[in-house]
Amino acid sequence: MIKLHNTNSLELTPGFNKPFFNMLRGNIESITREFDNTYTYRLKIPQGFHFVPGQYVHLMAPGGGLGEGMVRHMSIASTPEDGELVFSMDLSSRTPFKQRFAEAEVGDELRLFRIKGEFTLDHIRSGDRLLFIAGGIGITPFRSLIRHIDQTGLVNPWSLMYVGRNYLFTSDIDEAVRRDSLQRSVHYIGRKEIPETLGRLMTGGTAEAANQADMQNLQCFIGGSEGFVESLKSMVIAQGVTEEHIRLENFNH
């Protein structure tokens, strides 16, 4: 069990007698090794923690403190309706932050603050079709978005292009596709397959029809490493999607 670092003394905003953010706490309820060095951590949603599917939170490593490289932005892979917070991460980099999570145990306390992010479905119109593009661990916010679509009854058609060597959350994703296979699709591919797969999805949505789709109704979400995100952004723009129809989420932690 990791002992907690003392963070009772937090930086104060001038003129105020309390911290400039609310530090919420929760305890790890389960740890799952997904594959290789990729792990998923689950905890109950702390009281007072309110978020929109697709957002991220500042997450402090178990036993860590502020200003010690122990805080990272972490996308939430669950929804408010799930009643739990789900975080997945690749621990391969062995940074001090990742090392703390590699040593974490069920029951360890996590601290969270500052929920942010616009990688959400709030701007989606009823006639829009959605193209989700995930690279590696960048799949985490897409699980939240896909679950949110089913839990709220949104009827927008969507396709997911998931690029990687191993794949997270496949049972959740595949089950969501089965619920409406005419309006949804998932494509698990490697990097070499990106141009062909993206071309088919851009021009035909889930049905992959031959006719050019109306790009005004296409909303693209791209999540992954900075290089992956910038590369895929350039590719979808080259296909005719405007920047205002693209949402990006970089994963460089």
Automatic annotation (TrEMBL):
<dbReference type="InterPro" id="IPR017927">
    <property type="entry name" value="FAD-bd_FR_type"/>
</dbReference>
<feature type="domain" description="FAD-binding FR-type">
    <location>
        <begin position="21"/>
        <end position="122"/>
    </location>
</feature>
<dbReference type="InterPro" id="IPR039261">
    <property type="entry name" value="FNR_nucleotide-bd"/>
</dbReference>
<dbReference type="GO" id="GO:0016491">
    <property type="term" value="F:oxidoreductase activity"/>
</dbReference>
<protein>
    <submittedName>
        <fullName>Putative oxidoreductase FAD/NAD(P)-binding component</fullName>
    </submittedName>
</protein>
<dbReference type="InterPro" id="IPR050415">
    <property type="entry name" value="MRET"/>
</dbReference>
<dbReference type="InterPro" id="IPR017938">
    <property type="entry name" value="Riboflavin_synthase-like_b-brl"/>
</dbReference>
